Amino acid sequence: MYWEKEIETMDRGNLEKLQAARLGETLGRAQKSPHYGKVFKETRLDTDRIWTVADVGMLPLTTKEDLREQWPYGFLACSRDELIRMHSSSGTTGRATVIFHTDGDIAAWTNLLARSMYMTGMRRSDVFQNMMTYGLFTGGLGFHYGAEKIGALVIPAGAGNSKRQIQLMRDFDTTAIHIIPSYALHLSTVFAETGVDPRRDTKLKIAFLGAEPHSEKMRLKIEELYGFKGFNSYGLSEMNGPGVAFECPEQNGMHIWEDNYIVEIIDPVTLKPLPEGEEGELVMTTLLREGMPIIRYRTKDLTRIIPGPCPCGRTHRRIERIKGRTDDMMILKGVNIFPIQIERRLMEIPGVGTNFLIILDREGYNDSMTVKVEIQREFFGGDLHQLEALRRRIVEELRSDILITPRVDLVEPDSLPKSEGKAVRVVDKRKE
Ligand code: ADP
Ligand code: ZN
């Protein structure tokens, strides 16, 4: 049941001792990089003192802007000869950042993914189809290496080409997949078109759903369509990529691997640490990274620590499903709204299809929000009264959640732009 029982179930006291020891080593290494060498000197940080986990708050924060400024080598803590791989972020919010790995870094990352996938029940007898983009994006090779380490048969399918994905699943009896949740919904429509029922005609039993925010409702919808168990997988390239935090069979929050990271939740405005259980920005410090250690990285992702132990016996704390990035927050008529609130509501309404798009605009001096919602094929071309009733219901349900009245347009299945990577949920025309 455990990949590494001792580490996964280590009591909190020993886990924190391990973290403290690794923090000291990390600071020693980080100091060798141009960026931290300078920052530690300016802040007169004594990296040689004895560190405890509680001391981490004394260290300077690191931001995506720091990584961009120091692009490409300013965070390197070793010589270039020691590097064996480079990856980059997807560039969702601007210029992509690059991360370099030594062979030790790749081994540690691979191990985290093996640990995570093993935790959900994946074994060497499984056939794993990785439907993420290979290349610079971490979701391809990261999972690939982890699954090979478990000894599963890996199909490096890559992203897109839906019909071929379905064919591969059927020809090779795929049992586990790694897929972006918005793409999983889209793929279900291709299954329907080709007359293949994923529940009846495939052997799928496990899915790793990650790379973008998605609600519990969306997970349930995907599980229902496919008949597998979907496990939430969180990561970011700056902290390796996937394998940072992962759901266990309880499917109630993601264990964040604290032997590899020190985890804090801070108030994104005051930058002060928040009490356990409160929602704020996730901040992480790498503990095993050799090539490019990163101290107190501001992920911009909003979540909270779920207090209390997990029935699975793992002692590494759990973070709640990510609500979104601080940059994803839309401010409309003074109300703060996250795309996931809209997604969650839509997924509950029968007749709603698999994709939606939020368009923000300005009409005169007023902000407006239009939500384009794909509906299910059965509804389209049907009774106009029924369509109008559905449209009104969506407006009502959204208004009760986000407190403003959006315009809702119902559109044909598969008519909104699709992405092979992370879904684009919001188009903000106010900025144009
Ligand atoms: P970029 O930051 O350019 O998108 P990455 O590919 O490194 O590049 O993406 C990491 C980000 O993706 C995370 O910081 C987070 O915002 C989002 N993300 C990844 N996995 C999840 C998940 N399971 N739930 C919600 N958001 C996720
Ligand atoms: Zn658990």
What does this structure look like?
- This protein is an alpha/beta fold and 432 residues long.
- The chain folds into two domains: 5-326, 3-Layer(aba) Sandwich (Rossmann fold); 335-428, GMP Synthetase, Chain A, domain 3.
- It is 31% helix and 25% strand.
- It has twelve helices and 21 strands.
- The protein has helices at residues 5-8, 12-30, 34-42, 64-69, 103-119, 138-150, 162-171, 181-194, 198-201, 216-226, 339-348, 384-402, and strands at 83-88, 98-102, 127-130, 153-155, 176-179, 206-210, 229-236, 241-247, 254-256, 261-266, 280-286, 297-303, 305-306, 318-319, 324-325, 330-332, 335-337, 352-363, 366-375, 407-411, 426-428.
- Strands 4-3-5-6-7-8-9-14-13 form a nine-stranded mixed beta sheet. It has a four-stranded antiparallel beta sheet with strand order 10-11-12-15.
- Strand 3 (127-130), helix 6 and strand 4 form a beta-alpha-beta unit.
- Helix 8 runs parallel beside helix 10 (216-226) and helix 11 crosses helix 12.
- The longest helix has 19 residues, at 12-30.
- The relative contact order is 0.12.
- Zinc ion binds next to loops.
CATH architecture of the largest domain: 3-Layer(aba) Sandwich
Radius of gyration: 22 Å
Distance between the termini: 52 Å
CATH fold group of the largest domain: Rossmann fold
Structural class: alpha/beta
Q: Any idea how many domains? A: 2
Number of helices: 12
Report strand %: 15-25%
Mean pLDDT, to the nearest integer, reads: 96
